[in-house]
Amino acid sequence: MEPGAAGDSRPAKPGPCVSGAALAASGEPGRRMPTVAAVLPAGGCGERMGVGTPKQFCPILERPLISYTLQALERVCWIKDIVVAVTAENMGVMERIVQKYQHTRVSLAEAGVTRHRSIFNGLKALAEDEPGCKLSKPQVVIIHDAVRPFVEEDILLQVALAAEEHGAAGAIRPLVSTVISASADGCLDHSLERATHRASEMPQAFLFDVIYEAYQQCSDYDLEFGTECLQLALKYSDTKAKLVEGSPDLWKVTYKRDLSAAESIIKERISQEICMVMDTKEDTERVGYLLEEVLKKELNNVKIVSGVRSHGGRDIQQITLPQCYNFVCVNGAASDFPETQQLLSVLEQSSLSILYPVVVVLVYFLDFKSVPLGQKMESLMWIREFAKEVKKRNILLCGLLICYPQDEQTLQESLKQGAAIIAALIKDRNPGLIGQLLVA
Amino acid sequence: MEPGAAGDSRPAKPGPCVSGAALAASGEPGRRMPTVAAVLPAGGCGERMGVGTPKQFCPILERPLISYTLQALERVCWIKDIVVAVTAENMGVMERIVQKYQHTRVSLAEAGVTRHRSIFNGLKALAEDEPGCKLSKPQVVIIHDAVRPFVEEDILLQVALAAEEHGAAGAIRPLVSTVISASADGCLDHSLERATHRASEMPQAFLFDVIYEAYQQCSDYDLEFGTECLQLALKYSDTKAKLVEGSPDLWKVTYKRDLSAAESIIKERISQEICMVMDTKEDTERVGYLLEEVLKKELNNVKIVSGVRSHGGRDIQQITLPQCYNFVCVNGAASDFPETQQLLSVLEQSSLSILYPVVVVLVYFLDFKSVPLGQKMESLMWIREFAKEVKKRNILLCGLLICYPQDEQTLQESLKQGAAIIAALIKDRNPGLIGQLLVA
């Protein structure tokens, strides 16, 4: 990915804001933020995707794409309302998404038959400044696509502030391919200078009155066949949009391959951190820290924190990172079911697994010579049934057995293989493997 | 994916041609195919990728991207030579790729400092029609990107034939984003009519003399800053290129996310078929066919063939599909190591795993009540060591235990879970899990 793109911004829980210091960071600390709302046209039917489901509703890790986009917008405190325009037939689907994934600032409007008509309906919902209506007319409105889930706060801020100043603003990107103009007989007429042209992307932002007036004045032809809001603002409100260079992660999920790419990015983002929970038994702790060392060496892009679980029931949340979706629990040979159950019920009670599947690997160190491996495995068969239970709450549970004690070199090899297994489980997050007992 | 895109064309082994009937399929059965060669500029440094490795050398399933592109071109019989232009520093890397993945029609030329200079060098290598030189000047030359691995024979044929007729031809695609022109102050000047513009993609094709003459005549400025070969043909050879609508899988691997997308597409393509090899013991065979039924039901997009392995050593190749990269071997309780070894050595001797990692799942049906599961697992621990051995030949080996006999309902559940495990192993192809004994 290009420098500055993605990676550093992990997905956040719904609700809490990532940054209130956005304006300060923009270099204009004295400036007052205008009131801002967002409109997301989501009435498309996804014909380019080649799948039955409209692309905004296609699942990524079992959650619809549009929920990721809403989450990205809700992370930004200063966006007060988000109006999503969906078709009448998808209204129920969308309501369930808003409820299930706890989106708090979302209102729904009915989509029109074209993109422009959907946006217009979204704007109308914001313009109806009636008493009792929870929406109020914002100074600036951001228009974004439901299928661009990786939008960052900085570009949203840039277009919003530029819109306040210029009346309109939009994100742009360099062209990936040369653009050409065809003659009537299907031959090359001319190719465009790549340096002077740009791809118009989303988000865009407008002074509300500028874009609302443009929509009220524009022709049916525009509403039917147009696609570019910046062009409407220019044509009907005489407003020249400020263009803002965006990062590559503004890209639009268009084809089926883009869904795969989005899934990879999301999986990578939620695999950046592992929380290790150590049993307090001294010997286990020691070998637990050896595993931690090997994990740090083998997965060198992953942040690993660890803490000791007290048997008095100290809350696991004191150990964990706020946005960590991966847990490795190191258990002594005597660790038993109730303790694990306690740990998992803490995870279940947190809202962690609402948005992403959480991976939990239960590691057992045991002496394959003194206790036959097979016997130990049989004693851990409860993990199989338990994994099915917690899967219902989006937790993916596996067991991992590592022989200990062993001579130093063999132990290092086992730990290395253990790290590779943990990495595989976290990277792929494949629910087909839950409940398995793996051996390193 | 759009209709007609990908999916139906599985990756092929190097060497054998997919189709000799291409011309017939093009609707011009009487037409004689011109002599055709291809030039691939591969001198880029991949700065947009944000990773150290130039993108054409980035690995997908451990094989460099450019090898997939070469494979796609080598599937097409009528492309006689493929000239790859690489930088001097990557010449050795490229030679090893050609050798390791058995590319047979590839010659190397030295890349220039820009894309146009690299292509020019590739053309020069074809123009040098000297005795002793294995390359000869073709009538038509195809220019393609090293980072567009999913090119299909039909579009190659279309541009080659159109080039023979018109002198030049290139693949185009509809624009995904609106293209705009910016004014000097960074504001919108105007947006282009999306309907009359197209993205110029690859492959392109030219009468050799047309493009070679254009390169010989063009200015240093063109060679330094230009990117569009069709434009050179227009400007210097007065040749208007025929534009040919391409499918979405012509897309160029540009960003890191595109590598993920490419990996997903490749994994999906090699996961379309499973070959089941049944042990001949009657009881195992019966339950093996039950598993086959469940697999067919659960993985309904996957083609599953099965056959019985004879103990006399009947060649497994008689059972397998020609391009199948997934094997499920159903073993009786008494099946032992030598038989499995025999099967795997047949796989190793085939060239199957040169291009893609091959997944082999050894399934054991056993009565958990009569033989304790743990004991059985211990007796199968040889799979762990054996898996490390065959991994060296790109074979990913796992074991899967399924309880049998069980009552009908429990058996169905076990088989369903077994199918989910097999699907997970095939889909993710994660080498971190080799040698594991999974339980359904």
From TrEMBL, chains A, B:
<comment type="subunit">
    <text>Homodimer.</text>
</comment>
<protein>
    <recommendedName>
        <fullName>D-ribitol-5-phosphate cytidylyltransferase</fullName>
        <ecNumber>2.7.7.40</ecNumber>
    </recommendedName>
</protein>
<dbReference type="GO" id="GO:0035269">
    <property type="term" value="P:protein O-linked glycosylation via mannose"/>
</dbReference>
<dbReference type="GO" id="GO:0005829">
    <property type="term" value="C:cytosol"/>
</dbReference>
<feature type="region of interest" description="Disordered">
    <location>
        <begin position="1"/>
        <end position="28"/>
    </location>
</feature>
<dbReference type="Pfam" id="PF18706">
    <property type="entry name" value="ISPD_C"/>
</dbReference>
<dbReference type="InterPro" id="IPR034683">
    <property type="entry name" value="IspD/TarI"/>
</dbReference>
<comment type="pathway">
    <text>Protein modification; protein glycosylation.</text>
</comment>
<dbReference type="InterPro" id="IPR029044">
    <property type="entry name" value="Nucleotide-diphossugar_trans"/>
</dbReference>
<dbReference type="GO" id="GO:0042803">
    <property type="term" value="F:protein homodimerization activity"/>
</dbReference>
<dbReference type="GO" id="GO:0047349">
    <property type="term" value="F:D-ribitol-5-phosphate cytidylyltransferase activity"/>
</dbReference>
<comment type="similarity">
    <text>Belongs to the IspD/TarI cytidylyltransferase family. IspD subfamily.</text>
</comment>
<dbReference type="InterPro" id="IPR018294">
    <property type="entry name" value="ISPD_synthase_CS"/>
</dbReference>
<feature type="domain" description="D-ribitol-5-phosphate cytidylyltransferase C-terminal">
    <location>
        <begin position="272"/>
        <end position="419"/>
    </location>
</feature>
<dbReference type="GO" id="GO:0008299">
    <property type="term" value="P:isoprenoid biosynthetic process"/>
</dbReference>
<comment type="function">
    <text>Cytidylyltransferase required for protein O-linked mannosylation. Catalyzes the formation of CDP-ribitol nucleotide sugar from D-ribitol 5-phosphate. CDP-ribitol is a substrate of FKTN during the biosynthesis of the phosphorylated O-mannosyl trisaccharide (N-acetylgalactosamine-beta-3-N-acetylglucosamine-beta-4-(phosphate-6-)mannose), a carbohydrate structure present in alpha-dystroglycan (DAG1), which is required for binding laminin G-like domain-containing extracellular proteins with high affinity.</text>
</comment>
<dbReference type="Pfam" id="PF01128">
    <property type="entry name" value="IspD"/>
</dbReference>
<dbReference type="InterPro" id="IPR040635">
    <property type="entry name" value="ISPD_C"/>
</dbReference>
<keyword id="KW-0548">Nucleotidyltransferase</keyword>
<dbReference type="GO" id="GO:0007411">
    <property type="term" value="P:axon guidance"/>
</dbReference>
<keyword id="KW-0963">Cytoplasm</keyword>
<keyword id="KW-0808">Transferase</keyword>
